[in-house]
Request: fold
Amino acid sequence: MRIVKNDKSKKTFCAVLTACALWASALASAASTIDAHITVAADKPGPKIDPNIYGHFVEHLGRGVYEGIWVGEDSPIPNVRGIRSDVVSALRKIRVPLVRWPGGCFAELYHWRDGIGPRDKRPRTVNSAWGDEPETNAFGTHAFMDFLEQIGAKAFLSVNVTTGTPGEAREWLHYMTEPAESALGAQRAANGHPEPFEVPFVGIGNETWGCGGNMTASYYADVYRAYVSALAAPGRRLIASDANSDDYDWTETLLEKALFRHTRSFMESAELAYISRWPQIDMVSIHFYTFAGNDWGKKSPTLGFSAGEWADSMLRTSRTDEMLQKHSAILDKYDPKKRIGISFSEWGAWWARDEKAPSNLFQQNTLRDAVIAGMTLNIFHNHADRVKMANIAQMINVLQSMILTRGKDMVLTPTYHVFDLYQVHQGATLLPTEVAADDYVSGAVALPALNVSASRDEKGVIHVSIVNIDPEREAAVSLALNGTKARSASARVLTAATMDAHNDFDAPERLVPSDLKGINVRGDNLKLKVPAKSVTVLKVQP
Reply:
């Protein structure tokens, strides 16, 4: 049996694993039911879970933008100002808080003036970041901000560092945010939007260690400082370019060289002096993708994968917790007051390329993706003291999508349904949890079978998210509430008979959440059975 404590007041992850426990896990793996005990510390509330953890990522790639979002005003597909209405309706339902755009690697080749003004006069370019796909620039700044307004989300703008300049980025932000009386604001007004846009989040570069300029951390730190000088503004949060997954040296170097800037002020004697320092980094970014194992060249097919590939995918996803622990430890050294957040600005499953796929990086979305999403979001919740934003890659028709489209048709994926179930955690207060459960063991993989997080919303309702990563065994769960008692409880669960169960255009509701029956409530203790390979959200009414 393994004990996992999700309690930031002590340790993020505490694993008690002895030779005896390994032997017990091996025996448990042969059993038909996982024995699990969950304790929710309702009397020890933690930090707020930032709604921006549920952010999304949109890049000009495949059919992520064109057809996925933008169909044009003249399209027979129902739309509002060219933006398809069925997609808007679906995204509003899950309360998307913010969207990162225009990339990704595409952002490092994007020049914003190509995407403003009359569409018939915009230059047609080539998306050399993604297979030289044609780019019409029909979807530009105004369409993106219109899309955000329609779905009720905020803007996370990624500015071009590789082929752009601080001056170009500054002009783009001024074009978007200055009053119409200014020169750039007047251009925006002439293009149809007199009122300034709000741009609360700006990412300075994307993967600057790779497609974003092939930079060293030391060089990027200097570049970042230059962009800060051009872009810093009240109410605007700046996100530094990401470490490549577990590149902890990158985070260390960036913080050492670029974290602080000095405040200068005239004293009463008119003598110019340094009086304080403040962080010029609001968040540091991390990018990390799940595939089966740790080899980019062996990612596993989207359908028909093996039990071993399922296990390797779960192991890879579990590394998210390790990375957050280690990046957070570096931040704690430089920022003990926790003023700087982590933006997990690209995450999700990336499977092997399907030659029959209708567009670049299009992949089917299965129950495996749903379990990965549930695990990852639980990990983000349990690091809510540092994780202030995350962006799943990508929103529509690309990688681990919420939505798949085919012409006028639309399908909601299993991952979408997890985001729908989990939206109850947005803005809620994290409650520490402790889980004692049998391990899931498959070959060389041994992991806690259950992955859990809990929160309490403004009305006092407690929600517990339980992910059972074992594809064969259900879990008999005994859940204890410390500091409160339950009057009633209900739950919704997402599961299926096969690991690669999915929705498609012929069967769009093959895999959807359903009510979980048989919950027993006795004061501060609940008992329930959680199916194998499932994502469950338990609602407890105190």
About this structure: The chain has two domains: 2-47+429-541, 51-425. The radius of gyration is 24 Å. Confidence is low (pLDDT under 50) at residues 10-30, 263-276. The chain has ten helices and 30 strands.
